[in-house]
Amino acid sequence: MTDQFLSPTSLLDFEAGPIQRLVADRGWMNLSNADRIGAAYDFVRNEILFGYNSDDALPASRVLSDGYGQCNTKGTLLMALLRALGMPCRFHGFTIDKRLQRGVVPELVYPLAPANIIHSWVEIYHGGAWLNLEGFILDAPVLAALQNTFPERKSLCAYGAGTDCLQNPNVEWRGVSTYIQKTGINHDFGTFDDPDAFYATHRQLTGVKGLLYRVIIRHWMNHRVRRMRKGHVPDIPGGEAALVPDQSIPETQEAT
């Protein structure tokens, strides 16, 4: 595997002290390759809580310091940890339908949200193939709250989840691809060597809306997520239609 999938970058700053200490303290380098992937994946899924940072394009060390993140920022941290462990990985960029974020985004400001929200997952080279890793986004308590609130549902595209198997989503590392927001994807930008290359040309938090998001809206969203984690999942208007993905959203493909 070439160095392009193993090298540090400005965002994948795995040579930073806090990341190196984390890897050393956890003893991850002593594990098999499969278990290294699993250890980094489980750490990002559950010890880095689901939440909204000030920007998508944050260095991995900043995400680690924040202690929370969403698809893009948690993905950056996961990539940095994987590369620190010698595991080749790359970035896959998308957009998702904003309905996937409904319930997390307060209804008062929901109309201001862009129709298509930047999304990404991590692709890891393992066992001679590229695997998609997306199931790390929601921490276990948030996912459990959604499962408990909608015990009869299979498909859900809201509250930060986009899945057709809500009660048993493939989110744990078992050596295969994992997903939790896949059914909300509506555009595929393709793969990139690293998040730096993607964010050089694809940014969303700009202008007045970006300022409002960073200063006010994301804190409001994080408050709602904290309440969800405790079992208080807010109602959203629209009935059944508000909880399922747009039927025109295309299927995504396995990594190749």
UniProtKB/TrEMBL annotation:
Residue ranges occupied by any Transglutaminase-like domain in the UniProt entry: 33-134
Xref: Pfam families: Transglut_core
Name of the molecule in the record: Transglutaminase
Source organism superkingdom: Bacteria
Positions of the UniProt region annotated as Disordered: 236-256
